[in-house]
Amino acid sequence: MVRRVRSGRPEDAARPRSRSRWAGPPPLLLLATVLGFVVAPLVDQTASTALAQPGPATSFVSPRSVEPRIVRDPAGPHDEDTGTARAGESVRGAKPVEPAPIKVGVASYNMFRKISTAEAAEDARRLTSRPGVDVVGWQEAERFGGALKGIAGWRTQTFAYGQGISEVAISWRTDLFRLVKARQYQVAKGVSYREGSYPFGNRLVAVVTLAERSTGRILTVVNTHLPQKIEDFDDPGHWLPTLNAGRAREQLAKVAGIWRTADRTSRWVAGTGDFNFDARSDERAQVSGGPLARLGGRAVSSYEELGTDIGPTHPPTGRNIDYVWSDKAAVDDGRMQVQAQRVLSGYHSDHRPMVVQLKLD
User: Fold this and answer.
1) Which domain of life is it from (predicted)?
2) Angle at the Cα of 62 from the Cα atoms of 58 and 65, rounded to 5 degrees
C-alpha cells in the first residue's frame, strides 16, 4: 500500500486538514435574510396594531379618492352662503343633478277697496289657506295691509305710497320662497276729477323677485292694475275713447318693458293683475296697444293656453278681466307649463280670484 508522504515543512504538520470551500452567499448575508423572514411579520403586525389604536393628536386619511357629492342646504340657499353648494350645483368633479320640477299656484285677486277690513281679512285668509295657492297678486289693497301681513306662513310685500301704502301688493308662502328683492314703479299718471269723467290714481307696478328654497332658482312676479273705463262695451275688445284708455296703453307699454328686464335675470316670470279688458274680446279683436298686442311677445295668459271657457272673474259685467301671465320664452322651451286655471267664488269683492297652476322646471 503506497502511503501519501506530506511535505517536510514544519508548519504543514501543525495545519489542520482543510474543509471543502462554500460556493453560496456569504454566511452573514444568509443569516440576515433568514432573520428578515422570521422577524418582519412580527414587526408588521405590531405596527398594524399600533395604527389601529386611535391616537389623540394623529389622524390618518385613506389615499383612495373620495366620490364628490352634492351638498344641499336644508334651509334653502342664502345670500351669505359661501362654502355650501346650492341645490342644482355640484362640487367640482361631480355630475350636476337637475332639480325636480315644482308646482306653484299663482292667484290674482282684486279685493275691492269698498269692502270692510274684516271682510278683506276673511277673504285673504280664505284664499291663502287654499291648497294649491302659493303666490297672490293683490289689487285695491291700500286699506288692507294689516290683514295681508298677518297671514300665518305667508309674507306680504307692500309698498309705501303717499301717506300709506299703494294698492298693489304680493304675497307668497314662506316655506316655498324667500324674498330676494322688491320694487315698485309708477308707470302712468292718474286722472283727476277736473281732467276726466272717470278719475283714478297713478298706476303702479309691483315686482318681487323670489328664490325657490329647494333650488335657489328665481321667480319674478309682476303685479299691476289698469284703470277702469277703458274697454268699449258696445264694441268689446276695442278701446273706449277716454283719457283712461290712453293711460292704460302707456301702462301696458311700461309693463312690457319691466317684463323684458325681469326675463333677463329670472328663470321664471309670472304676472298678475286686473286689466279691465276682457280676455275673450281681446283674443278676438287683438286691438292695437291692448293686452295681447302689447304683452303677447313677452308673456302668455292662461286664457291663451287653456281657453276662455271658464266663469267670469268680474260677474257684474260678465267679463274675464283678471289675468295670470307666464313668461312666453319659458313656456316655449318647457321651463313653465300652464296646467290648470280656476275662478273661485264666495268672496266679498265684486271680483273673483283667478288661480292658475304652473309647473316650473
Assistant:
1) Bacteria
2) 140
- Three-state SS for 266-308 is CCEEEEEEECCCCHHHHHHHCCCCCHHHHHCCCEEEHHHHHCC
**Which CATH number, 3.40.50.300, 1.20.950.20, 3.60.10.10, 3.40.1190.20, labels domain 102-360?**
3.60.10.10
Indicate the helix (H) or strand (E) that contains 33: helix 27-52
How far is Cα of residue 126 from the mean position of the Cα atoms in its chain? Answer: 26
Bridge-based pairing of strands 177-188 and 154-157 is unpaired
Residue type, 251: Q
* This prediction's pTM: 0.74
Contacts with 278 (C-beta within 8 Å, 6 or more apart), sequence order: 231, 236, 237, 319, 320, 321
> For the residues 284-296, what does the mean pLDDT come to?
97
242 SS3 class: coil
Query: What does the chain come to in residues?
Result: 361
> 111-123 in b/e burial notation, b at 16+ Cβ within 10 A?
bbeebeeebbbeb
Residue 49, phi then psi, degrees to nearest 5: -65, -40
Q: Where are the domains of the chain?
A: 102-360
Extract the C-alpha cell encoding 55.
Answer: 391616537
pLDDT of residue 44: 44
pLDDT tops 50 at residue 295: yes
Query: Distance between CA atoms of 135 and 105, rounded to whole angstroms?
Result: 6
Residue 282 phi/psi, 5-degree rounding, is -65, -40
Give the residue-averaged pLDDT of 119-126.
98
